[in-house]
Write a structure and sequence with these properties.
The chain is globular and about 50 Å long. The chain folds into two domains: 81 residues, Winged helix-like DNA-binding domain superfamily/Winged helix DNA-binding domain (Arc Repressor Mutant, subunit A, Orthogonal Bundle); 121 residues, Rossmann fold, CATH 3.40.50. Helix 6 crosses helix 9 and helix 7 packs across helix 9. The protein is built from nine helices and six strands. With 219 residues, the protein is an alpha/beta fold. Helices cover 45% and strands 12% of the residues. The mean pLDDT is 91. The strands form two sheets. It has a four-stranded parallel β-sheet.
Length: 219
């Protein structure tokens, strides 16, 4: 292990040495949050929240992104690669997981397939405004990852007739449209359909896989 690796790890552990920052990271391990949500959930003033987020950002543990739905909104999310082996996070509940995006044509389909394979548990997907078919780019990316979406079809949330143990929105637009329940999780994943290149879809698969592996590792 190099000196740089040790320095990076030391900086991350130092950032996590504060109970409030550790609680924020545990929260973000499950769900991306807006700054306002974080402030309310952890009873922090805007100035104190800004301080803690700045420390976590300098340590390379979090990043901030503009919503792909309402551009006035921001989301704070973890760098899940940086979190590996640090022993923080929140375990996902046992039972079926429902992944939701707008069109149910890419992100939610990929997330459900990856979850089923990685967790060995049931996973479903649905959309708020389903497309006519799963995007060819998602089908191809799934195949490159060893998954089969060739028979998958988009469906509306109203067509889901089971009660999932967990709902995860993987789309800013769907998250903001649905006014989700407090126990839902949100992963702010950009839509690869906006840049339908092989690299874009493969990057989406990699981001989803990293998040899922982080959660499975907490079990």
């Amino acid at each position: 292990m190099t000196v740089v690796d040790l320095a990076d790890r030391a900086r991350r552990f130092a950032a996590l040495g504060d109970p409030i920052r550790l609680a924020i990271v545990d929260d973000l391990a499950a769900s991306d949050r807006s700054p306002g949500e974080l402030g309310r959930r952890h009873d922090l003033s805007s100035n104190l929240l800004a301080h803690h987020l700045a420390v976590l950002e300098r340590a390379g543990l979090i990043e901030r992104a503009v919503s792909s739905g309402d551009a006035r909104r921001r989301y704070v999310r973890l760098d899940h690669e940086a979190l590996r082996h640090l022993g923080v996070g929140v375990a996902a509940p046992a039972g079926a997981v429902l992944f939701v995006c707008t069109h149910n044509s890419a992100r939610s389909q990929l997330a459900a397939a990856l979850w089923s394979r990685t967790a060995g548990a049931a996973a479903l997907s649905a959309g708020t405004h389903p497309a006519e078919r799963v995007h060819n780019g998602a089908v191809a990316a799934a195949a490159r990852a060893g998954l089969d979406l060739s028979g998958a079809r988009p469906r509306h949330l109203d067509e889901v007739h089971v009660t999932p143990a967990l709902v995860v929105t993987v789309c800013d637009r769907a998250h903001e449209e649905l006014a989700p329940e407090p126990q839902w999780w949100h992963w702010s994943i950009p839509d690869p359909v906006d840049d339908p290149s092989t690299e874009s879809f493969d990057h989406t698969v990699a981001r989803l896989q990293a998040r899922i592996e982080t959660l499975i590792g907490m079990r």
